[in-house]
Amino acid sequence: MPAADLDENAVFAALASPLRRELLDLLRAGERNAGELAAAFAVSRPAVSQHLAVLQQAHLVDERRAGRHRVYALRAGPLRAVTDWLGPYQDFWTERLDALGQHLRDRHGEPPAARPDEEGQ
Amino acid sequence: MRRFGDSIRIQRDYPYPVSAVWAALTDPEQLAEWLMPNDFRAGVGHRFAFRTRPRPGFDGVVHCEVLTVEAPSLLRYSWRGGPMTEPSIVSWELSATPTGCRVLLRHENLAQNAYSWFVGRTLRLGWADLLRRKLPATVGRRSRAAS
Q1: Which of A93, A96, A121 to mutate to probe the B interface, most B CBs <10 Å?
Q2: Where are the domains of chain B?
Q3: Which member of A35, A72, A76, B50 lies 3.0 to 4.6 Å from B62 by CB, making a disulfide possible if both were Cys?
Q4: What CATH superfamily is the domain B8-109?
Q5: Do A24 and B6 touch (CB under 8 A)?
Q6: pLDDT below 70 — which residues of chain B?
Q7: Which residues 79-108 in chain A show a CB within 8 A of chain B?
Q8: Nearest chain A Cα distance for residue B8, angstroms
Q9: Residue A11 is part of which domain span?
Q10: Is there a single domain that holds both residue A62 and residue A105?
Q11: Three-state SS for A19?
Q12: In chain B, which residues have their Cβ closer than 8 Å to the Cβ of A17?
C-alpha cells in the first residue's frame, strides 16, 4: 500500500529530528501558538516554522488561525506507526518482567507477603 | 516521561529484597534463566551479548555494553539487536519498598531506531526487488548471450 507507506515514511522522518520530538512534547501539554513554540528553542523562528511544516506534512500536527496567531495542536493518530514499533518491545519487557517475578519465586520461595501470618511486618 | 515515542517505561513491585532482585539482574546464570543466555559482568565498559533463537530479521544476538553500575540501585547498558542501527539504552532502577523492591525499567532511544528500522526496511525491500527481478533478468540475458 504505497499511500500508507508514504505516511509512515513521513512520520518516521518527522520523528528523526530531536527538535521536532521536543515540539511534539510541548504540544502534548496543549495547543501553542507559533511564537510560544519558537520561544522554547534557541534556533530562529523561521527554522521552527520549517520544523512545524514537516510535522504538519506528516499529519502529526494541525495548524489553525486564531486572530493574528497561528495555533498548533497535536494529532496523535499517525503516531500509531511509532506505537507499532514500540509494541514488540513493550510486549517483550512485560513478558520478561513476569519471568523475573517467576524466577524470584522459584529461587527464594513464596514471598512473605503471600503468607497471611506474616502480614503487617 | 522522556521524548515522544522514544522510550518504554515499566514499573513493577516484587515482594523480595532489593539484594535478591539485584542479583537476578547481575548474576549471568540467573539472568539467563529469566532473560537470555549471556556473558554479562557487572563492570562498566564490559561488552557482552544476549543470545537467543534467531528468527527472520533478527540473528538472535543483542550486543550490549555496561554503562552504569551502582549496586544495588542502578544498572544501565546499551542494547543493539535485530533491526537497530544504533544502540538503545536499557536501565534498571531498584528501590526498597515496605514489602520488597520496586523496579523501574526504561528502554530508551528507540525513536531514532524506529526511523532507521523503517529506512532499513525500505532499503531491504529495494534490494529484495533488485535480487528478485533485476538480477535474474540480467544474469539470464548474460547467460543467453554467452551460449
Answers
A1: A93
A2: 8-109, 114-147
A3: B50
A4: START domain (3.30.530.20)
A5: no
A6: 1-5, 57, 83, 111-147
A7: 79, 82-83, 85-86, 89-90, 93-94, 96-97, 99-104, 107-108
A8: 7
A9: 2-77
A10: no
A11: helix
A12: none
Q: What is the amino acid identity at position A9?
A: N
pLDDT by position in tens, chain A (length 121): 344 444 667 777 787 787 888 888 788 778 999 999 999 888 899 999 999 999 998 888 999 998 888 999 988 666 666 666 677 788 889 999 999 999 999 999 987 654 444 444 4
**Pick from A63, A54, A62: nearest CA to A11:** A54
Chain B residue with CA closest to A13: the answer is B115
Decide if A117 is inside a domain.
no
The residue with cell 534498571 is B92
Query: CA–CA separation, B66 vs B68, rounded Å?
Result: 6
Would you call A76 an interface residue with chain B, using a CB distance cutoff of 8 Å? no
| A49 and A84 in a common domain | no
DSSP code for A113 = G
